[in-house]
Automatic annotation (TrEMBL):
Domain S1 motif, first and last residues per copy: 153-213
Family indicated by similarity: Belongs to the CvfB family.
Listed name of the protein: S1 motif domain-containing protein
Pfam family name, one: WHD_CvfB
Domain of life: Bacteria
Provenance organism: Virgibacillus salarius
PANTHER family with a match to the protein in the record: CONSERVED VIRULENCE FACTOR B (PTHR37296)
Length: 284
């Protein structure tokens, strides 16, 4: 029976019991609970059902068929997040399915939140229980469309399907693949998060490079405000200047050294800060 878990089968109604219906398939019996069907069934009637394992480990049936199946990928909304276990997603049945922590980012700060979406298929663990498995890069590649050059410098929306220190990969609604380099984001997006960004390159292979940062002029104002806030929070002095190490700047302000220098130059020009001996001071 366990081999049928995660599949859709046509079964025959054998009899009605107090809790629902008993279905038969290849000499096996399955319970179809009243809560798992919206219609009244009669003996000998055939019905299509999805097979899954309930909380007690019993193999049962439902007429509420999922839109995600074995080897069929689709978007699933996150319904619950359980630390140290994973997240549960809605695949279209009454039972939400676990995406194991083993298939999620190492750091839970970028785990999906309720309402985010993951591109998944169905699989099983060693005990035969259903799991939702995020699509691999190879699967994504088979689904992609080639992005047109006309998208350059336009705003675009997509859902993050992979995230790392190097950058974040996303899929747009038209199934274009986009990549956000770590230098083009202030904060690492969550897996499954929907983001809006600006197309800064349409690559020859039809994929996109995307920035979540505002245009330079807008960004310079925001960066300058962040530097001022950091100065105010640290007694009016910070151990940074336009000669500081780029990695140190990024580790503190999450911006490139070039962006830091632009913002610092703006503050110095406006008479708000000054540099001395490798440090920046807030002017009174």
């Amino acid at each position: 029976m366990n081999q049928l878990v995660g599949t859709i089968q046509t079964m025959t109604v054998d009899r009605t019991i107090e809790t629902g219906y008993v279905l038969t398939f290849e000499m096996n019996e399955f319970l179809l609970h009243h809560n798992e069907t919206n219609t009244i069934l009669e003996p000998n009637q055939e019905v299509d059902v999805f097979i899954y394992m309930d909380k007690k480990g019993k193999v049962v049936a439902t007429t509420k068929l999922p839109h995600i199946k074995m080897d069929i990928y689709d978007w699933a909304e996150v319904k619950n997040v359980i630390p140290n276990l994973g997240v549960f997603v809605d695949i279209g049945t009454t039972k939400d399915i676990l995406v194991s922590k083993d298939d999620l980012p190492l750091f839970d700060q970028v785990w999906p939140q309720i309402g985010d979406r993951l591109f998944v298929t169905l699989g099983k663990d060693q005990k035969g229980k259903l799991l939702a498995l995020p699509a691999s890069e190879g699967v994504i590649a088979r689904e992609l469309e080639l992005a047109p050059d006309s998208l350059l410098n336009t705003m675009i929306e997509g859902t993050v399907y992979r995230t790392s220190r190097e950058g974040s990969a996303l899929i747009t609604g038209d199934f274009y693949r986009g990549f956000i380099h770590h230098s083009e984001r202030r904060k690492e997006p969550r897996l499954g998060q929907q983001v809006n960004g600006r197309v800064i390159e349409v690559k020859p292979d039809g994929t996109l490079n995307i920035s979540l940062r505002p245009l330079k002029q807008e960004s310079m104002h925001e960066d300058a405000e962040a530097i001022l806030q950091h100065l105010e929070a640290n007694g009016g002095v910070i151990p940074f200047s336009d000669k500081s190490d780029p990695d140190d700047i990024r580790g503190t302000f999450h911006i490139s050294k070039a962006a830091f220098k632009r913002a610092l130059g703006k503050l110095m020009k406006n008479g708000k800060v000054e540099q001395r001996e490798g440090k920046t001071y807030l002017k009174s």
